[in-house]
Amino acid sequence: MSLLSSPPLVEAAASTAYDPIRLKVPMSLWDLPTPALTIDLEAMESNLLKMKTFYQGKKAKLRPHTKTHKCPIIAKRQIEDGAVGVCAAKVSEAEVMVEAGIGNVLITSPVVTKEKMERVVALAKKSPGVAIVVDQEKNVRDYDDAARAAGVKLPVLIDLNVGTDRTGIAIGKPALDLAEVIRKSSSLTFGGLQAYAGHLMHLRGFEYRKQASEATMGRAVEFKHALEKAGFEVPVLTGGGTGTYNIDCDIDGITDVQVGSYLFMDVNYRNVGGKDGPLYEDFRPSLLVLTTAISQPAKGRITVDAGVKAFATDQEPPDPLSLPGVSYRFAGDEHGILEFRDPRGPAEVKLGDKVLMIASHCDPTVNLYDQYYPFRNERVEEIWPIAGRGKSQ
Amino acid sequence: MSLLSSPPLVEAAASTAYDPIRLKVPMSLWDLPTPALTIDLEAMESNLLKMKTFYQGKKAKLRPHTKTHKCPIIAKRQIEDGAVGVCAAKVSEAEVMVEAGIGNVLITSPVVTKEKMERVVALAKKSPGVAIVVDQEKNVRDYDDAARAAGVKLPVLIDLNVGTDRTGIAIGKPALDLAEVIRKSSSLTFGGLQAYAGHLMHLRGFEYRKQASEATMGRAVEFKHALEKAGFEVPVLTGGGTGTYNIDCDIDGITDVQVGSYLFMDVNYRNVGGKDGPLYEDFRPSLLVLTTAISQPAKGRITVDAGVKAFATDQEPPDPLSLPGVSYRFAGDEHGILEFRDPRGPAEVKLGDKVLMIASHCDPTVNLYDQYYPFRNERVEEIWPIAGRGKSQ
User: Fold this and answer.
1) What is the ipTM of this complex?
2) How far is B62 from B54, CA to CA, in rounded Å?
3) Bridge partners of residue A40, in order along the sequence
4) Beta strands in chain B (DSSP E)
5) Which of A56, A94, B159, B290 has the most other CB atoms within 10 Å of its CB?
6) Chain A residues with CB-CB distance to B392 below 8 A
7) CB-CB under 8 Å, B308 with A352
C-alpha cells in the first residue's frame, strides 16, 4: 500500500485534506517508495528567504503563482512571507486554495463558460479577495450577469496581450474600451491590469532579458498611466515571474510579481543565465525525484524506475543530482536510463541504488504526484498533499 | 466544485473507489468542465470487440496492459472478453487492480527494493494469480526470502532483453542460469518468459514491423524450446503489443500478447502503418479531451484551456477531431493554440466553443486525469474513476 493509505505509519489523520500529514516514525529519505517527489527543505526555505529578503523595501510586492506547487501548505508560507495574495491558473485550482483558507486568489486565465463563471462567483462569495481576468467584452457582460445573480461584487482585471499572443487584449483603444465596459457594469469592480510576459521568462542572458522586460512591461505601465488619465483608478498591475523577479520589481508602476518556479527551480531555469553569471543560480534546486536503479541490461548505463509518468517531458530532461558524468534519458512511460558518459569518472550507480534527480520542468512534474515528501538531513517527518494536483479545470 | 465532489449530481456513492459513479441526471458531453478526459464508448467498444473477435481461435491469448487505462472498470471488460489476465507496470498499479478484484495480474517491470518486494508478496498472498518478472540472480534470491517469510509460492517469469536494452537478461546462458536459480529456490515457481519488444511497436510499415517482430520474438521462442529441452516447463511466453497484435498471435510458442493502446489509439499509433494501408486504422480513436476556446488575441488561431498539464508531451501533439485544416500546438502548462492552417477552409472555432481533441500519447495522458467521462450519443451517464492514476511506484 502507499504510505498515505497505511494508517500505522501516520500519527493522526490531518485535520483537512490540505494539512501536513505527520508520520508516526520519521523515515529516511532513502526508504521512500520510488519514484517519490521530494522537497529539499533547506534549499526551498533558502529560496523563500532569499525572495522575501530581496523584496523587502521594494515598491512591488510578491503574488506567487500556486500553479507551480499546487499546495496550500506552501501558499501559506508565501503569504506569511508578505505576499499580497496568490495566483491560480484555473478555477478548480483556485477552489482548492480558497477551501484551504488562502485569501486574495487571482485567477490568471480567462474563463468563459457559464458553469465555470458561476463557480468563480460562488468562490468570490466565499472569499471576497477572489479576482479574475478578462480579455473580451462578452465575457465582461456574462460575468456581470453571474455576479449580479449571486449578489456579489467581483473584482476584474484586464488581461493585456504583451506578446504571448496566447490570451489578453491589445493595449490601447481595445483595452481602454474594455475598461469602460467594466466601469459601466453593475456588479464588477475594475481591479487593474495583468501583463504576463511568459515569453520573456526563459530568454537567455540577464541583460537581454532585462531589456526585453523593461520594454514590454514599460508599455503596460504606459497604458496604466493612460487609464489613470482617463479617470480610472488602477490598483494593480501584475505580471512577471521568476525569470524577471529582479527586473520587474524596479519598473515603476508594477505592483506585484507572479513568481512561481523560484521555490523549486528546475533544469530549464538554470540555463537562462543570471545577473551574476551564465548560470541562473539565484535559487537552489529543491524539487527532487527519488528513483531506484532496477535493471542493467547493458554496460555503461542503468535503468531507473521513473519515466514519462514521473517527469515532465515538455522541456529539458531531469538531471541526476551530484553525479557528474551521468545523464538521464527517457525510456518510455515507466523507465529512464542513466548513461555514464565517462566510464572512468567517479560516478557509479549500482543495482538497487537510490538516485535523486533534479526535476525537469517543475510545474508539470508536480502535477504528476499526489504528495510531496519534504526532507531535512535526509529525514522525512511529514507528507504534504498536493491538493491542486490535476486541477486543470 | 468538481463533479466528483458535488453530491447532488451523483445518484449514489459508488460501492468502492473503483466502480462507476452514476450521475443523477445525464449530462451533455458539451457541458463537461474542461479540460475533460472523455471516452467515445462506441469507438472503444468497437475496439474491444474487434480485438476479441480477432483473437477467437488463435493459440495466443490476450493479456492487456492496464498501464494504458489504469481503470479496473475497463480491466473487467477485458477479462470478460477472454483475457488470461492483465499486466501492471508497477506494484502500486497492481495493488489497485487486485483491490478491485482483478485476478492474474502480472507486474511487468523488475522490482528490487525490500519494501516493494514485501508489498508484492503481500499482494500474492491476497491474489494467487499475481506474478512478477526478474532479470537478476540477487533479485531472485531476495524474492525467495520474502516469499518464504510470508509463506507464499510466488510465480516468477524471466524478463528477457529482446532489444529494448531497458530491462531484461540476455537470452542464452545468462537466462538459462537464472531459470536454474528459480528452480532451486524454495518459494518461487518458474512461471515462464516475458519478451517485450517495446522498440518494435511503433516501427513504420506493417511488413517491416512484421519481419522485425518475427525475428525478435523468434529468438525468444527458440530460447523457450531450449529451456524445455533442459527440462523446464514454460507455461507462458508473453510479449507484444498493439503494434504487433496481428503478428505475434501467429508466432507459434507465444502464449499471450500485452496489448494496451488498441483501446484508445492515439495520434502516434495512427502513423505507424497498418496491414491494409499507410495509416494504422485497425482501431478507432476513442480517447478524446474536451477543451474550450477561451481567448483569441490574434487572427488565424484561437487559444484553448488545455496545455502541458492536460496532454502528454512526449510524442506527437493532440489532433483536433473532425476539424480539417486546424492543428494544435502547446502554449504552456495551461493552454494550447489551435492554428487555422487554411483560412478559407470550412473549419472555424469561435470563442466559447468546445473542441474535442484526439489525445496525444494515450498512456501518459490518462495519467493526468482523475476520471473518465464515457459518452454515447453525446450523453454522459457515468464517471469512471482512474483508480491507478499516479500509481507509478
Assistant:
1) 0.95
2) 10
3) A375
4) 21-28, 36-40, 61-62, 86-88, 105-107, 131-134, 154-159, 188-195, 237-239, 256-257, 287-295, 301-304, 319-320, 326-330, 336-340, 354-358, 371-376, 379-385
5) A94
6) 35, 305-306, 309-310, 334, 368
7) no
